[in-house]
Design a protein that fits this description.
Length: 92
């Protein structure tokens, strides 16, 4: 029962993060809202794994967290400079 209540709370927080992603006002706010949505997705996957008693869900949640982190770094870099890579000798 307690895990189900936590799941509902995470779903509400995910909805609020999506509202922030749509409203903005800047591109950075939107990227961070999507990152927050991804983090809450990791929490939801972990909660589902705990409710089902399946430990393999935790591995999936960890993999999703790593993908979410790398995607956020890439999006922030692209939003800041308009490109994903740097040329040799360029400073950050």
């Amino acid at each position: 029962m307690m895990l189900a209540a936590a799941g509902v709370a995470v779903l509400v927080a995910m909805g609020l993060a999506m509202v922030r992603a749509f409203l903005g006002p800047t591109v950075y706010d939107r990227i961070l809202a999507v990152n927050s949505f991804g983090t809450k997705t990791v929490l939801l996957i972990t909660l589902l794994g705990a409710m089902a008693g399946r430990a393999d869900y935790f591995d999936l949640a960890l993999l999703y967290a790593l993908i979410n982190f790398i995607a956020t770094i890439a999006l922030m870099r692209y939003a800041g400079s308009g490109e994903l890579s740097r040329e040799e000798g360029e400073d950050a």
